[in-house]
Amino acid sequence: MLGDISAASEIYLVCGYTDMRKSIDGLRAIVEGTLKLDSKNHSLFLFCGRRCDRIKALIWEGDGYVLLYKRLDVENGRYRWPRDKSEARNLTWQQFDWLMSGIDIEQPTAIRIKRPC
Fold first, then answer.
1. Is 43 contained in some domain?
2. Residue 84 belongs to what domain range?
3. Cβ distance 12 to 88 under 8 Å?
């Protein structure tokens, strides 16, 4: 199905600023050239520009790439995006949900890990 991100095996957040004028080929070049990751492994790759109010997502669907684009329509709405350049962070689906909700993906107190005594 076109743009079904639930089929993604992994979610990668591409840290730093991405030129949002890039299309499929430009984003694929970042994934394969800069990050040295396989863009055809059914992973979802997320990119964000300097304004932090829009993201692009790239996913391989077996017979071609799908590019998704989302721009926040709320005034002063911003994604909380890590800015460590040339790095891709592997996200969980929970962190992805936090990111799409405008919440920082680093939530140290959101999940308490019970430690043995």
1. yes
2. 7-100
3. yes
Question: CB neighbours of 103 closer than 8 A, spacing ≥ 6?
Answer: 80
66 pLDDT above the threshold of 60: yes
> Residue 24's CB: how many other CB atoms inside 10 A?
14
Domain count within the chain: 1
The average pLDDT across 1-14 equals 85
Residue 111 maps to a domain: no
Name the more confident of 33 and 106.
Answer: 33
State the burial class of residue 40 (Cβ atoms within 10 Å of its Cβ: 0-12, 13-18, 19+).
middle
pLDDT of 52 reads 87
What is the CB neighbour count within 10 angstroms for residue 112? Answer: 7
Indicate whether 107 belongs to any domain: no
